[in-house]
TrEMBL record:
Residues 28-48, 460-479 are annotated as: Disordered. It comes from Cecembia lonarensis (strain CCUG 58316 / KCTC 22772 / LW9). It comes from the Bacteria. Transmembrane segments: none annotated. Gene3D superfamilies: Glycosidases. This is Glycosyl transferase family WbsX. PANTHER family: GLYCOSYLTRANSFERASE (PTHR41244:SF1), RHAMNAN SYNTHESIS F (PTHR41244). InterPro entries: WbsX.
Amino acid sequence: MKLFSSFLLFAIILAVDPGSCEEKLKKLTSTGTNEQTSPTPEPTVQQNPDFEAPVIFDEAARVASNEQQAGHLVGVYFMPSWNTSGDPKRDVDSFWSCLTGREDCSSLQNPGIWGPRGRIYNRQYPYEGPFLERKPHASLGGFYKRDDPKTAKKQLEYMKNYGIDFFAYNWFFGRHYYYHLYFGPQSKIYYPEGWKIDPNRDGRVAVPGLEEWSDQLTVLLQENEKLPADKQMKWAINWCDDSDERWKLWLDLGSPESMAAGRNFPGEKPDRNLYLQVHDKITQLWIDKYFKRKDYLKDPDGRPIVYFYFPQDTESRASFYGISMKELLDRSKALAIKNGLKGIKFIAVASGAMMPNERQYGMPTRWRPNNSREPWKGGRYTDRLLFQDYVPRLKNMGFEGLTAYVYHNFFELDNKSFADMRKTYQGHWNRWAEQFKNDPNFEYQVPVAMGWDMRPAGGTWPQQTGFPSEPQKDRVHSNKATFKAKLEEARTISEKYKPTNGNTIMICCWNEYLEGNYIEPTEGHGFAYLEAIKEVYMDRRTGFIPAPPAFAASSRNP
Protein backbone atom coordinates (compact mmCIF):
# COMPACT_ATOMS: atom_id res chain seq x y z
CA MET A 1 0.00 0.00 0.00
CA LYS A 2 2.87 2.37 0.75
CA LEU A 3 4.29 1.65 -2.68
CA PHE A 4 0.99 2.56 -4.31
CA SER A 5 0.66 5.72 -2.22
CA SER A 6 4.14 6.83 -3.15
CA PHE A 7 3.52 6.26 -6.83
CA LEU A 8 0.15 7.99 -6.66
CA LEU A 9 1.76 11.03 -5.06
CA PHE A 10 4.46 10.91 -7.72
CA ALA A 11 1.87 10.89 -10.50
CA ILE A 12 -0.27 13.62 -8.97
CA ILE A 13 2.52 16.05 -8.14
CA LEU A 14 3.96 15.83 -11.65
CA ALA A 15 0.79 17.54 -12.83
CA VAL A 16 1.27 20.54 -10.52
CA ASP A 17 1.87 23.86 -12.25
CA PRO A 18 5.59 24.64 -11.73
CA GLY A 19 5.29 28.28 -12.62
CA SER A 20 7.32 30.06 -15.27
CA CYS A 21 11.02 30.33 -14.79
CA GLU A 22 10.74 34.11 -14.56
CA GLU A 23 7.53 34.28 -12.54
CA LYS A 24 8.78 35.90 -9.34
CA LEU A 25 5.79 37.05 -7.35
CA LYS A 26 6.17 40.59 -6.04
CA LYS A 27 3.96 41.01 -2.99
CA LEU A 28 2.58 44.40 -3.90
CA THR A 29 -0.87 45.79 -3.30
CA SER A 30 -3.08 46.26 -6.32
CA THR A 31 -2.46 49.66 -7.88
CA GLY A 32 -5.58 49.77 -10.01
CA THR A 33 -5.84 51.11 -13.54
CA ASN A 34 -8.56 52.27 -15.85
CA GLU A 35 -10.17 49.62 -18.00
CA GLN A 36 -7.92 48.79 -20.93
CA THR A 37 -8.66 47.08 -24.16
CA SER A 38 -6.49 44.55 -25.92
CA PRO A 39 -4.48 45.87 -28.87
CA THR A 40 -5.80 44.87 -32.25
CA PRO A 41 -4.12 41.57 -33.15
CA GLU A 42 -2.16 41.32 -36.33
CA PRO A 43 -3.98 39.49 -39.13
CA THR A 44 -3.59 35.75 -39.28
CA VAL A 45 -1.06 34.66 -41.85
CA GLN A 46 -1.81 32.47 -44.79
CA GLN A 47 -1.14 28.87 -43.82
CA ASN A 48 2.08 27.55 -45.30
CA PRO A 49 2.93 24.18 -43.74
CA ASP A 50 5.47 23.41 -46.45
CA PHE A 51 7.63 26.41 -45.66
CA GLU A 52 11.33 25.59 -45.61
CA ALA A 53 13.94 27.74 -43.91
CA PRO A 54 16.42 29.51 -46.20
CA VAL A 55 19.59 27.73 -47.21
CA ILE A 56 22.70 28.91 -45.41
CA PHE A 57 25.13 29.92 -48.13
CA ASP A 58 28.36 29.50 -46.21
CA GLU A 59 27.78 27.14 -43.31
CA ALA A 60 31.43 26.12 -43.12
CA ALA A 61 32.50 29.73 -42.70
CA ARG A 62 29.84 30.19 -40.05
CA VAL A 63 31.05 27.21 -38.02
CA ALA A 64 34.67 28.27 -38.37
CA SER A 65 33.76 31.75 -37.24
CA ASN A 66 32.12 30.36 -34.12
CA GLU A 67 35.06 28.14 -33.29
CA GLN A 68 37.49 31.02 -33.63
CA GLN A 69 35.14 33.29 -31.66
CA ALA A 70 35.50 35.90 -34.39
CA GLY A 71 31.83 36.80 -34.14
CA HIS A 72 29.15 36.41 -31.51
CA LEU A 73 27.63 33.30 -30.00
CA VAL A 74 23.86 33.75 -29.87
CA GLY A 75 21.93 31.77 -27.27
CA VAL A 76 18.21 31.59 -26.53
CA TYR A 77 16.30 30.34 -23.49
CA PHE A 78 13.83 27.50 -24.09
CA MET A 79 10.90 27.14 -21.66
CA PRO A 80 9.19 23.72 -21.50
CA SER A 81 5.44 23.36 -21.18
CA TRP A 82 3.71 20.58 -19.24
CA ASN A 83 0.41 18.77 -18.84
CA THR A 84 -1.73 20.50 -16.21
CA SER A 85 -4.50 17.89 -16.25
CA GLY A 86 -4.85 15.41 -13.41
CA ASP A 87 -6.47 13.01 -15.86
CA PRO A 88 -3.77 10.84 -17.49
CA LYS A 89 -6.03 10.38 -20.53
CA ARG A 90 -6.28 14.13 -21.15
CA ASP A 91 -3.45 16.46 -22.07
CA VAL A 92 -3.93 20.13 -21.20
CA ASP A 93 -0.84 22.02 -22.31
CA SER A 94 0.18 24.76 -19.89
CA PHE A 95 0.81 27.17 -22.78
CA TRP A 96 -1.98 26.51 -25.25
CA SER A 97 -4.73 26.27 -22.61
CA CYS A 98 -3.99 29.86 -21.57
CA LEU A 99 -3.69 31.25 -25.10
CA THR A 100 -6.98 29.79 -26.30
CA GLY A 101 -9.14 30.66 -23.29
CA ARG A 102 -9.27 30.74 -19.51
CA GLU A 103 -11.41 27.75 -18.54
CA ASP A 104 -8.49 25.27 -18.57
CA CYS A 105 -5.69 27.74 -17.82
CA SER A 106 -4.09 26.51 -14.60
CA SER A 107 -2.07 29.73 -14.28
CA LEU A 108 -5.33 31.63 -13.72
CA GLN A 109 -6.74 29.11 -11.25
CA ASN A 110 -3.70 28.69 -9.00
CA PRO A 111 -4.69 29.74 -5.44
CA GLY A 112 -1.04 29.75 -4.42
CA ILE A 113 -0.42 32.91 -6.43
CA TRP A 114 -3.87 34.45 -6.98
CA GLY A 115 -5.65 33.59 -3.73
CA PRO A 116 -8.59 31.26 -3.07
CA ARG A 117 -10.70 32.52 -6.01
CA GLY A 118 -7.92 32.43 -8.55
CA ARG A 119 -7.51 35.30 -11.01
CA ILE A 120 -10.51 37.64 -10.76
CA TYR A 121 -11.78 39.58 -13.78
CA ASN A 122 -14.07 42.60 -13.61
CA ARG A 123 -14.59 45.94 -15.33
CA GLN A 124 -11.34 47.30 -13.98
CA TYR A 125 -9.37 44.17 -14.88
CA PRO A 126 -11.24 42.59 -17.82
CA TYR A 127 -10.27 39.38 -19.54
CA GLU A 128 -8.53 40.37 -22.80
CA GLY A 129 -8.03 37.00 -24.47
CA PRO A 130 -7.92 34.73 -26.26
CA PHE A 131 -4.41 35.41 -27.54
CA LEU A 132 -4.53 33.56 -30.82
CA GLU A 133 -1.92 35.77 -32.49
CA ARG A 134 0.59 33.80 -30.38
CA LYS A 135 -0.34 30.53 -32.04
CA PRO A 136 2.83 28.91 -33.45
CA HIS A 137 3.33 29.05 -37.20
CA ALA A 138 1.63 26.37 -39.30
CA SER A 139 5.01 24.95 -40.33
CA LEU A 140 5.50 24.02 -36.66
CA GLY A 141 2.09 22.41 -36.43
CA GLY A 142 0.17 25.27 -34.85
CA PHE A 143 -0.62 24.38 -31.24
CA TYR A 144 1.80 21.48 -31.46
CA LYS A 145 2.34 18.59 -29.07
CA ARG A 146 5.41 19.35 -27.00
CA ASP A 147 6.96 15.92 -27.68
CA ASP A 148 6.28 15.88 -31.44
CA PRO A 149 9.54 14.91 -33.22
CA LYS A 150 8.59 16.79 -36.40
CA THR A 151 8.06 20.00 -34.45
CA ALA A 152 11.31 19.53 -32.52
CA LYS A 153 13.23 19.05 -35.76
CA LYS A 154 11.73 22.23 -37.22
CA GLN A 155 12.58 24.17 -34.08
CA LEU A 156 16.20 23.05 -34.28
CA GLU A 157 16.40 23.86 -37.98
CA TYR A 158 14.93 27.32 -37.52
CA MET A 159 17.32 28.12 -34.68
CA LYS A 160 20.32 27.00 -36.70
CA ASN A 161 19.30 28.54 -39.99
CA TYR A 162 18.54 31.93 -38.49
CA GLY A 163 21.80 32.37 -36.61
CA ILE A 164 21.14 30.98 -33.12
CA ASP A 165 24.09 28.91 -31.89
CA PHE A 166 22.67 27.25 -28.78
CA PHE A 167 19.61 27.04 -26.57
CA ALA A 168 19.59 27.05 -22.77
CA TYR A 169 16.84 24.69 -21.64
CA ASN A 170 15.03 25.74 -18.45
CA TRP A 171 15.69 22.64 -16.35
CA PHE A 172 13.65 21.71 -13.26
CA PHE A 173 14.36 19.10 -10.59
CA GLY A 174 11.99 17.91 -7.87
CA ARG A 175 14.29 16.95 -5.02
CA HIS A 176 11.50 15.50 -2.87
CA TYR A 177 10.40 12.52 -5.01
CA TYR A 178 11.15 9.01 -3.75
CA TYR A 179 10.65 6.23 -6.30
CA HIS A 180 11.14 2.48 -6.77
CA LEU A 181 13.50 1.05 -9.38
CA TYR A 182 11.82 -2.39 -9.29
CA PHE A 183 8.43 -0.88 -10.11
CA GLY A 184 7.78 -0.79 -13.87
CA PRO A 185 6.68 2.83 -14.47
CA GLN A 186 9.54 4.13 -12.29
CA SER A 187 12.28 1.71 -13.32
CA LYS A 188 13.73 3.99 -16.01
CA ILE A 189 14.01 7.09 -13.84
CA TYR A 190 17.66 8.10 -13.52
CA TYR A 191 19.56 6.94 -10.44
CA PRO A 192 23.38 7.00 -10.14
CA GLU A 193 24.97 3.61 -10.69
CA GLY A 194 25.94 1.87 -7.47
CA TRP A 195 23.99 4.20 -5.17
CA LYS A 196 22.08 2.64 -2.29
CA ILE A 197 18.54 1.31 -2.71
CA ASP A 198 16.24 -0.76 -0.50
CA PRO A 199 15.64 -4.15 -2.20
CA ASN A 200 12.99 -5.00 0.39
CA ARG A 201 10.87 -2.04 -0.73
CA ASP A 202 10.88 -2.63 -4.49
CA GLY A 203 14.21 -0.91 -4.95
CA ARG A 204 13.22 2.30 -3.18
CA VAL A 205 15.95 4.87 -3.72
CA ALA A 206 17.88 6.15 -0.72
CA VAL A 207 18.44 9.58 -2.31
CA PRO A 208 15.26 11.14 -3.75
CA GLY A 209 14.79 13.54 -6.65
CA LEU A 210 14.04 13.44 -10.37
CA GLU A 211 13.90 15.63 -13.47
CA GLU A 212 10.64 17.45 -14.13
CA TRP A 213 9.16 18.57 -17.45
CA SER A 214 12.03 17.17 -19.50
CA ASP A 215 10.01 15.46 -22.25
CA GLN A 216 10.65 18.32 -24.68
CA LEU A 217 14.37 18.19 -23.97
CA THR A 218 14.39 14.45 -24.62
CA VAL A 219 12.82 14.77 -28.07
CA LEU A 220 14.94 17.81 -28.97
CA LEU A 221 18.12 15.89 -28.22
CA GLN A 222 16.90 12.80 -30.06
CA GLU A 223 16.19 14.85 -33.17
CA ASN A 224 19.43 16.80 -32.81
CA GLU A 225 21.43 13.56 -32.91
CA LYS A 226 19.87 12.66 -36.26
CA LEU A 227 21.09 15.84 -37.94
CA PRO A 228 24.48 16.11 -39.69
CA ALA A 229 27.19 17.30 -37.32
CA ASP A 230 27.41 20.77 -38.89
CA LYS A 231 23.63 21.21 -38.62
CA GLN A 232 23.29 20.25 -34.96
CA MET A 233 22.50 22.80 -32.27
CA LYS A 234 24.55 23.22 -29.13
CA TRP A 235 22.60 23.42 -25.90
CA ALA A 236 23.06 23.99 -22.17
CA ILE A 237 21.15 23.59 -18.92
CA ASN A 238 19.54 26.63 -17.30
CA TRP A 239 18.85 25.28 -13.82
CA CYS A 240 15.62 26.77 -12.45
CA ASP A 241 15.72 25.89 -8.76
CA ASP A 242 13.13 28.58 -8.12
CA SER A 243 9.95 27.14 -6.59
CA ASP A 244 9.03 27.81 -2.98
CA GLU A 245 6.30 25.20 -3.39
CA ARG A 246 8.87 22.51 -4.24
CA TRP A 247 11.03 23.67 -1.33
CA LYS A 248 8.17 23.11 1.13
CA LEU A 249 7.50 19.67 -0.38
CA TRP A 250 11.15 18.84 0.28
CA LEU A 251 10.91 20.00 3.90
CA ASP A 252 7.75 17.92 4.30
CA LEU A 253 9.72 14.68 3.89
CA GLY A 254 9.37 12.66 7.07
CA SER A 255 6.87 15.04 8.67
CA PRO A 256 4.15 13.47 10.85
CA GLU A 257 1.61 14.13 8.10
CA SER A 258 3.83 12.57 5.45
CA MET A 259 4.52 9.52 7.59
CA ALA A 260 0.83 9.06 8.37
CA ALA A 261 -0.02 9.27 4.67
CA GLY A 262 2.58 6.60 3.83
CA ARG A 263 4.69 8.90 1.69
CA ASN A 264 7.82 8.28 3.75
CA PHE A 265 9.45 5.60 5.85
CA PRO A 266 11.38 5.97 9.12
CA GLY A 267 14.75 7.59 8.56
CA GLU A 268 13.69 9.55 5.49
CA LYS A 269 14.09 13.16 6.53
CA PRO A 270 15.39 16.30 4.78
CA ASP A 271 18.51 16.88 6.85
CA ARG A 272 21.76 18.52 5.81
CA ASN A 273 23.39 15.29 4.70
CA LEU A 274 20.49 14.31 2.43
CA TYR A 275 20.37 17.83 0.96
CA LEU A 276 24.03 17.52 -0.08
CA GLN A 277 23.47 14.00 -1.42
CA VAL A 278 20.62 15.28 -3.59
CA HIS A 279 22.85 18.07 -4.88
CA ASP A 280 25.50 15.49 -5.79
CA LYS A 281 22.81 13.42 -7.50
CA ILE A 282 21.81 16.41 -9.62
CA THR A 283 25.42 16.94 -10.70
CA GLN A 284 25.95 13.24 -11.41
CA LEU A 285 22.81 13.21 -13.54
CA TRP A 286 24.17 16.12 -15.58
CA ILE A 287 27.46 14.27 -16.04
CA ASP A 288 25.97 10.90 -16.97
CA LYS A 289 23.15 12.10 -19.22
CA TYR A 290 24.27 15.40 -20.69
CA PHE A 291 27.82 16.69 -20.19
CA LYS A 292 29.48 13.93 -22.18
CA ARG A 293 27.29 14.57 -25.22
CA LYS A 294 28.99 16.13 -28.23
CA ASP A 295 26.21 18.70 -28.58
CA TYR A 296 26.50 20.03 -25.02
CA LEU A 297 27.83 23.59 -24.82
CA LYS A 298 31.38 23.85 -23.46
CA ASP A 299 33.86 26.66 -22.98
CA PRO A 300 37.19 26.77 -24.88
CA ASP A 301 38.79 24.67 -22.12
CA GLY A 302 36.20 21.93 -22.58
CA ARG A 303 34.23 22.63 -19.41
CA PRO A 304 30.44 22.23 -19.67
CA ILE A 305 28.55 25.49 -19.12
CA VAL A 306 25.58 25.59 -16.74
CA TYR A 307 23.32 28.62 -16.46
CA PHE A 308 21.91 29.08 -12.95
CA TYR A 309 18.60 30.93 -12.81
CA PHE A 310 18.04 33.15 -9.76
CA PRO A 311 20.89 31.84 -7.56
CA GLN A 312 19.57 33.81 -4.60
CA ASP A 313 16.77 31.28 -4.19
CA THR A 314 19.16 28.36 -3.85
CA GLU A 315 21.52 30.40 -1.67
CA SER A 316 18.68 31.26 0.71
CA ARG A 317 17.46 27.69 1.09
CA ALA A 318 20.94 26.20 1.44
CA SER A 319 21.56 28.68 4.28
CA PHE A 320 18.93 26.79 6.29
CA TYR A 321 21.56 24.04 6.58
CA GLY A 322 24.51 26.39 7.00
CA ILE A 323 25.65 25.62 3.45
CA SER A 324 27.05 28.35 1.21
CA MET A 325 26.55 28.67 -2.52
CA LYS A 326 30.30 28.35 -2.98
CA GLU A 327 30.24 24.99 -1.21
CA LEU A 328 27.52 23.74 -3.57
CA LEU A 329 29.25 24.90 -6.75
CA ASP A 330 32.64 23.61 -5.57
CA ARG A 331 31.10 20.18 -4.91
CA SER A 332 29.70 20.09 -8.44
CA LYS A 333 33.01 21.15 -9.98
CA ALA A 334 34.95 18.56 -7.96
CA LEU A 335 32.52 15.79 -8.92
CA ALA A 336 32.86 16.73 -12.59
CA ILE A 337 36.65 16.53 -12.34
CA LYS A 338 36.37 13.16 -10.58
CA ASN A 339 34.37 11.95 -13.59
CA GLY A 340 37.04 12.95 -16.08
CA LEU A 341 35.80 16.43 -17.00
CA LYS A 342 37.70 19.67 -16.52
CA GLY A 343 35.15 21.17 -14.17
CA ILE A 344 31.96 23.17 -14.73
CA LYS A 345 31.55 26.82 -15.68
CA PHE A 346 28.56 28.36 -13.89
CA ILE A 347 26.87 31.51 -15.24
CA ALA A 348 24.44 33.34 -12.95
CA VAL A 349 21.11 34.38 -14.51
CA ALA A 350 19.98 37.17 -12.23
CA SER A 351 18.07 40.43 -11.92
CA GLY A 352 16.31 42.24 -9.11
CA ALA A 353 15.12 45.42 -7.42
CA MET A 354 17.58 48.32 -7.30
CA MET A 355 15.80 51.15 -5.45
CA PRO A 356 16.21 51.50 -1.64
CA ASN A 357 12.44 51.74 -1.18
CA GLU A 358 12.11 48.33 -2.88
CA ARG A 359 14.47 46.47 -0.56
CA GLN A 360 11.59 44.34 0.73
CA TYR A 361 11.47 42.84 -2.79
CA GLY A 362 15.25 42.51 -2.98
CA MET A 363 17.31 39.35 -3.44
CA PRO A 364 17.18 37.16 -0.31
CA THR A 365 20.25 35.41 1.06
CA ARG A 366 18.64 33.48 3.95
CA TRP A 367 15.54 31.39 4.57
CA ARG A 368 14.20 31.12 8.12
CA PRO A 369 11.36 28.80 9.16
CA ASN A 370 8.41 30.30 10.96
CA ASN A 371 8.62 27.39 13.39
CA SER A 372 11.96 25.59 13.63
CA ARG A 373 10.17 22.41 14.72
CA GLU A 374 7.85 22.46 11.70
CA PRO A 375 9.80 24.05 8.83
CA TRP A 376 7.59 22.38 6.22
CA LYS A 377 4.80 24.75 7.20
CA GLY A 378 6.62 27.71 5.72
CA GLY A 379 9.16 30.38 6.40
CA ARG A 380 10.54 33.78 5.42
CA TYR A 381 13.15 34.90 2.91
CA THR A 382 15.33 37.44 4.70
CA ASP A 383 18.62 39.37 4.57
CA ARG A 384 17.68 40.88 1.23
CA LEU A 385 20.10 42.76 -0.98
CA LEU A 386 19.52 45.14 -3.85
CA PHE A 387 20.68 43.82 -7.20
CA GLN A 388 23.70 46.13 -7.42
CA ASP A 389 24.83 44.85 -4.00
CA TYR A 390 24.24 41.20 -4.85
CA VAL A 391 26.15 41.08 -8.14
CA PRO A 392 29.64 41.78 -6.70
CA ARG A 393 29.27 38.66 -4.52
CA LEU A 394 28.84 36.28 -7.47
CA LYS A 395 32.50 35.61 -8.22
CA ASN A 396 33.31 34.63 -4.63
CA MET A 397 30.30 32.31 -4.74
CA GLY A 398 31.91 30.35 -7.58
CA PHE A 399 30.27 31.91 -10.63
CA GLU A 400 32.33 32.90 -13.66
CA GLY A 401 29.78 35.03 -15.44
CA LEU A 402 26.52 36.95 -15.27
CA THR A 403 23.59 37.38 -17.62
CA ALA A 404 19.83 37.84 -17.23
CA TYR A 405 16.49 36.38 -18.21
CA VAL A 406 14.50 39.63 -18.16
CA TYR A 407 15.37 43.04 -16.71
CA HIS A 408 12.20 44.75 -15.53
CA ASN A 409 13.82 47.94 -14.31
CA PHE A 410 17.01 49.91 -13.90
CA PHE A 411 16.87 51.89 -10.67
CA GLU A 412 13.76 54.13 -10.94
CA LEU A 413 13.05 53.35 -14.60
CA ASP A 414 10.43 50.59 -15.11
CA ASN A 415 9.47 48.84 -18.33
CA LYS A 416 6.07 50.16 -19.41
CA SER A 417 6.88 50.12 -23.12
CA PHE A 418 9.53 48.58 -25.34
CA ALA A 419 11.20 51.99 -25.55
CA ASP A 420 11.49 51.86 -21.75
CA MET A 421 12.88 48.34 -21.94
CA ARG A 422 15.60 49.41 -24.35
CA LYS A 423 16.64 52.12 -21.87
CA THR A 424 16.66 49.80 -18.85
CA TYR A 425 18.74 47.27 -20.76
CA GLN A 426 21.19 49.93 -21.86
CA GLY A 427 21.60 50.90 -18.22
CA HIS A 428 22.36 47.33 -17.17
CA TRP A 429 24.63 46.63 -20.13
CA ASN A 430 26.77 49.68 -19.44
CA ARG A 431 26.96 49.11 -15.69
CA TRP A 432 27.87 45.42 -15.67
CA ALA A 433 30.07 45.41 -18.77
CA GLU A 434 32.02 48.31 -17.30
CA GLN A 435 32.20 46.71 -13.85
CA PHE A 436 33.76 43.49 -15.15
CA LYS A 437 35.83 44.91 -18.01
CA ASN A 438 39.13 44.40 -16.18
CA ASP A 439 38.36 40.88 -14.97
CA PRO A 440 39.28 38.25 -17.60
CA ASN A 441 37.94 35.51 -15.31
CA PHE A 442 34.37 36.82 -15.09
CA GLU A 443 32.25 37.59 -18.14
CA TYR A 444 29.08 39.54 -18.68
CA GLN A 445 26.92 37.91 -21.34
CA VAL A 446 24.76 40.66 -22.84
CA PRO A 447 21.04 39.75 -22.52
CA VAL A 448 18.25 40.78 -24.89
CA ALA A 449 14.46 40.36 -24.55
CA MET A 450 11.77 40.88 -27.18
CA GLY A 451 9.13 42.19 -24.77
CA TRP A 452 6.86 41.38 -21.84
CA ASP A 453 3.12 40.74 -21.58
CA MET A 454 1.80 38.31 -18.96
CA ARG A 455 -1.90 38.78 -19.68
CA PRO A 456 -2.44 35.15 -20.79
CA ALA A 457 -1.24 34.09 -17.32
CA GLY A 458 -3.26 36.78 -15.54
CA GLY A 459 -0.94 39.78 -15.64
CA THR A 460 2.03 41.34 -13.84
CA TRP A 461 2.36 40.51 -10.94
CA PRO A 462 -0.01 37.94 -9.35
CA GLN A 463 -1.31 38.84 -5.89
CA GLN A 464 -3.38 36.99 -3.31
CA THR A 465 -6.14 39.53 -3.93
CA GLY A 466 -6.81 37.90 -7.30
CA PHE A 467 -5.58 40.94 -9.23
CA PRO A 468 -2.22 41.85 -10.78
CA SER A 469 -0.25 44.56 -9.02
CA GLU A 470 1.31 46.21 -12.08
CA PRO A 471 -0.83 45.51 -15.16
CA GLN A 472 0.59 48.63 -16.82
CA LYS A 473 3.75 46.59 -17.45
CA ASP A 474 1.89 44.18 -19.74
CA ARG A 475 2.31 46.42 -22.77
CA VAL A 476 6.00 45.96 -23.52
CA HIS A 477 5.59 45.10 -27.19
CA SER A 478 8.18 45.19 -29.96
CA ASN A 479 8.21 44.55 -33.68
CA LYS A 480 10.94 43.49 -36.08
CA ALA A 481 12.36 46.99 -36.45
CA THR A 482 12.54 47.82 -32.74
CA PHE A 483 13.80 44.35 -31.80
CA LYS A 484 16.46 44.56 -34.50
CA ALA A 485 17.52 47.96 -33.17
CA LYS A 486 17.89 46.44 -29.71
CA LEU A 487 19.98 43.59 -31.15
CA GLU A 488 22.21 46.15 -32.85
CA GLU A 489 22.67 47.95 -29.54
CA ALA A 490 23.52 44.66 -27.82
CA ARG A 491 26.02 43.85 -30.54
CA THR A 492 27.71 47.23 -30.10
CA ILE A 493 28.12 46.88 -26.33
CA SER A 494 29.29 43.27 -26.65
CA GLU A 495 31.94 44.16 -29.23
CA LYS A 496 33.18 47.05 -27.11
CA TYR A 497 33.88 44.81 -24.12
CA LYS A 498 34.60 41.52 -25.91
CA PRO A 499 38.30 41.30 -24.91
CA THR A 500 37.30 40.51 -21.31
CA ASN A 501 33.54 39.92 -21.35
CA GLY A 502 33.43 37.28 -24.08
CA ASN A 503 31.13 37.24 -27.07
CA THR A 504 27.84 35.67 -25.97
CA ILE A 505 24.42 37.27 -26.52
CA MET A 506 21.55 35.68 -24.54
CA ILE A 507 18.04 36.15 -25.94
CA CYS A 508 14.83 35.68 -23.99
CA CYS A 509 13.11 33.69 -25.17
CA TRP A 510 12.30 31.05 -27.75
CA ASN A 511 8.86 30.25 -26.37
CA GLU A 512 7.83 32.09 -23.19
CA TYR A 513 4.31 32.38 -24.58
CA LEU A 514 2.63 33.26 -21.29
CA GLU A 515 5.08 36.09 -20.58
CA GLY A 516 5.00 37.61 -24.06
CA ASN A 517 8.63 36.71 -24.75
CA TYR A 518 8.73 34.42 -27.78
CA ILE A 519 10.76 34.60 -30.99
CA GLU A 520 9.49 31.25 -32.26
CA PRO A 521 7.56 31.83 -35.52
CA THR A 522 3.87 32.51 -34.88
CA GLU A 523 0.77 33.49 -36.79
CA GLY A 524 1.06 36.99 -35.33
CA HIS A 525 4.66 37.93 -36.14
CA GLY A 526 5.70 35.17 -38.51
CA PHE A 527 9.47 34.86 -38.83
CA ALA A 528 10.16 38.54 -38.12
CA TYR A 529 12.21 38.04 -34.95
CA LEU A 530 14.30 35.25 -36.42
CA GLU A 531 14.93 37.40 -39.48
CA ALA A 532 16.17 40.21 -37.23
CA ILE A 533 18.63 37.88 -35.50
CA LYS A 534 19.88 36.54 -38.81
CA GLU A 535 20.36 40.01 -40.27
CA VAL A 536 22.23 41.40 -37.24
CA TYR A 537 24.45 38.43 -36.41
CA MET A 538 24.51 35.67 -38.97
CA ASP A 539 24.63 37.58 -42.26
CA ARG A 540 27.40 39.83 -40.97
CA ARG A 541 29.25 36.89 -39.50
CA THR A 542 29.44 35.14 -42.85
CA GLY A 543 29.81 38.30 -44.89
CA PHE A 544 26.66 37.42 -46.82
CA ILE A 545 24.17 40.22 -47.49
CA PRO A 546 21.27 38.69 -49.44
CA ALA A 547 19.71 40.54 -52.34
CA PRO A 548 15.96 41.11 -52.05
CA PRO A 549 13.87 38.54 -53.92
CA ALA A 550 12.07 39.41 -57.13
CA PHE A 551 8.78 39.23 -55.25
CA ALA A 552 8.19 40.74 -51.84
CA ALA A 553 7.72 38.14 -49.12
CA SER A 554 6.26 39.31 -45.83
CA SER A 555 7.88 38.46 -42.51
CA ARG A 556 4.81 36.51 -41.50
CA ASN A 557 4.85 34.29 -44.57
CA PRO A 558 8.35 34.11 -46.13
